[in-house]
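Hey, resending since the last one bounced:
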Amino acid sequence: MKKIYLVGLAAILSLTGCEDFLDSTNYTGKDSSNFPLNETDVNQMVAAVYEATVNEPLKTPADTYFFMANLACDDMYGGGGQNDLQTQAAAHMLYNSENAMQAMWTGRYAGIARANMAIANVENITDEELRNQTKGELLFLRAYNYFELAQCFGNIPLVERAPENVEEAQVSPEQVDVKEVFKLIADDLYEATQIMPSYAYDGWSKLAYGKVSRWAAEAFLARVYLYYTGFFNESSMPKSEGTIENAYVVECINDVINNSKHDLVEDFRLLWTYSNSETAKDYDYVADLKAAGKSWIKDGTNVEEIFSMNFGYLSDWSNTQLHLTNQFCLYFGTRANSWQDSDKFRVGKEGSVYPFGTGWGSGPVATNLWEDWKAAEPEDMRREASILDASSFLDHADNDAQMEETGYINKKIAPIRAGGGDYFSFAATPAYWGDGVSFGHFQATHPQNLVLIRFADVLLMHSELTKTADGMNRVRARAGLPAVGYTDEALRNERRWELAFEGHRWGDIRRWGIAPQALEKQAGYKIWNAGGIEATMKSQAGSFASRYNETKGYYRIPKSQVDLSNGSIKQNQGWEGSNGYYASWN
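The structure tokens again:
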């Protein structure tokens, strides 16, 4: 499947703040009065916003909301090597660098700035259908950037439109109450769901794969609505004028379910790259799929994917292009003393974790997740489909000084090997990329996309919004589990099992008001630190519950942003001064 790579056009969507360098001559013939006019112009304009939203954050993966949210929740520990102090800190709601999450802050505002400029010019598109589709994409992307900022930092500066001149561009936006940010998010998503065309899924022939569809906008509105109403304990979500009520959100979710043509894939394992045909030759866990002629449903052909981050393939390490590959796979990979050449990644070797490859050891799966899941749903196939239990055979000394290791390894977002473990990525094999390719590179050959919205989540949101078990039981049936009646506990468990490691759990436990008790369950389990030293998992801030209560789950605003604001940006509660600083594991 040919992927669409979205390359930014910063020159088109930027405005210099230095008057000495301003030149009013129109060298290109394109300005806000005549750009964009045609589909080529539109693609150039929108590509810059996608690039800032999707690819740019991966230049610093540990500073992304997705990474932080996975580590901070109760399903993953921090991990990483002894020197990965910020990774461990994030899992305990602490910080090691005073500018931690700086890349996320600046990257999200860059996406917002580009979206604002594009929205200001989108009315130039003369084709009404193209204009509505394009504007919907831009509104979605601006809302996506603001939603991550709002969840992460709470009260933040709000930039609602592009500056009209240099003087406006030099005025610092004021920090506002987070609820005001959600009003803009609500406005954007409501308008997007009103205007976007209904292109039923047909293998991405109408829209380029990776673009935002109406269905993505409707599903994302439901996600934001559930977060807002739950976290703030309100019955509706305000817009700048009026409110968004439950009935409208249900209407949107029903539209996705009934009209999008998206659906569940037949087997849960087919969603994850370890079931690809090359790896499956040596991976007994998916032998039944291989025997039936079934394998991983490649990116761009998966009916369950509604919105994804698109990534590409690099055959070798690159200082400037790694962010075009899925760096989350690298970060969540298993550490080893000998990295690419370790026998622990090859078939038939003692202690092998094949087909799961090497990486930085971030996000070891929390033992409490495995134990909770086993106790609540012992016959759920998704547990072993999502987690490798290597606790009985993993060589904890061969982990390059990893911290908080548990022996449980995330299968969903991980580096995947092939060829008995000789190929450093399943995608490096000739079967995927043609003859003459290399064995790949453990930092670079991760082309698998990151699915941000999939149909299973839509079904679970339907159950939560309607308090019915219909959607939930469709998801359970796919896993071979019997139907159940709706309860909040059943729905919460189902989301935890189905969506583990996909970035949703942190927002879920916060909006359900169960974060303190859920986080506290991490403590007391055996872990291995720094080359196999046994230890007991514990909070590095007194207790997980007290630290959450102190911060409400909001992260520390980077010090550089507070300093640059000359006092107009106030630091979040629980992070004042050096409060929350993490120096080392104890």
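Residues 1-27 have pLDDT under 50 and may be disordered.

Sorry for the duplicate.
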